[in-house]
Amino acid sequence: MSQAPVKVAVTGGAGHIAYSLLFRIIAGQLLGKETPVELRLLEITPAMKALEGVAMEIDDCASPLVSNIVMSDDPNVAFDGANICLLVGARPRGKGMNRSDLLAANGAIFAPQGKAINDHAADDVRVLVTGNPANTNTLIARTHAPDVPGSRFTSLMRLDHNRTIAQLSKKTGVPVGEIKKVAVWGNHSDTQYPDITNATIGGKPATEAVNDAEWLENTFIPTVAKRGGAIIEARGASSATSAANATAQHMHDLMLGSPEGDWVTMGVTSDGSYGVPEGLTFGMPCTTKNGEFEIVQGLEFSDYGKAKLAATIEELEAERAAVHELGLV
Ligand code: NAD
Ligand code: LMR
């Protein structure tokens, strides 16, 4: 393992998601089993002791991939030289809350973190925001990092993508590995549009395999879009391991490439594709390679799909206006 370690910053290092994510990273699920990592963990001051406990457990895994662990309550330190920043640390919602209820509480975290990334991260930095509301937090962080290309900031929609595949597999009995080219458009919220128009299930068009518009509109889409809330109701806490799994998969595929013959959903800065207003962080199907993504172009929308797209655009525009009011963008 002669390669220089990749510096991976993780915020909220003592939180629930990080407690799954960090152990996936040191097992090679982020960058492969040959790439050593330096972990740079950020927490708020009162959680530093708990963070030390997490670092002790990382030590006790004796993973050959871990070259060093840096812990700090200062984003300027945690992001110093970071090649990859996984912005997980933020308050989760509780029962009965919408993710957008977190905008004021969590939005304020992402302005100083964006600035610290701008000022201290490596020139090749890639940033993924998991902390909710993830799309608009990404917009905030990006706005405060004017020297970093906007395309380097992405938000987590992979959990929604995975939920889409899982529900289709349950409905059809086809294994998840044979379900390709699903997409989840828009916001990581109840307005998202899980879209199977271009998907295949066991090699057949998904629209033939699931020829049931009533189920798609009234069961499938709400189940996927409201899955986070259903988990909070059932578990009493928001999803953690599935979120960590998706966070690792998103960055893994961005750096090492999306699967051949398939695509992945990522929240990316809109360039105006599909009429999505420029600058919104929007879930889109993408192909990825070597840290770069391309939005899949040329996809068609039904009238129903156009209405779903418009609704999630409207919500993200409202979130952008709300954080503008708060002085965050
Ligand atoms: P958690 O409360 O268990 O952990 C969050 C951690 O972040 C805490 O340890 C806290 O001290 C830390 N933190 C708070 N402010 C910080 C700051 N300014 N800098 C660094 N660390 C800070 O929460 P969790 O279950 O790990 O969830 C984290 C976030 O991820 C929540 O906002 C949750 O809603 C979100 N989430 C997103 C998705 C997604 O698909 N995008 C999925 C699940 C959860
Ligand atoms: C999820 O989708 O599971 C997370 O965003 C947590 C939440 O608040 O729903």
Automatic annotation (TrEMBL):
GO BP terms, alphabetized: malate metabolic process; tricarboxylic acid cycle
Keyword flag Oxidoreductase: yes
Binding residue positions for substrate: R93, R99, N132, R163
UniProt-annotated binding residues for NAD(+): G12, G13, A14, G15, H16, I17, A18, N106, Q113, T130, G131, N132
GO molecular function: L-malate dehydrogenase (NAD+) activity
UniProt keyword list: NAD, Oxidoreductase, Tricarboxylic acid cycle
Reactions catalysed, as given in the entry: (S)-malate + NAD(+) = oxaloacetate + NADH + H(+)
Organism domain of life: Bacteria
Alphabetized HAMAP family for the sequence: Malate_dehydrog_2 (MF_01517)
PANTHER family xrefs: MALATE DEHYDROGENASE
Protein name from the UniProt record: Malate dehydrogenase
Originating species: Raineyella fluvialis
Lineage, top ranks: Bacteria, Bacillati, Actinomycetota, Actinomycetes, Propionibacteriales
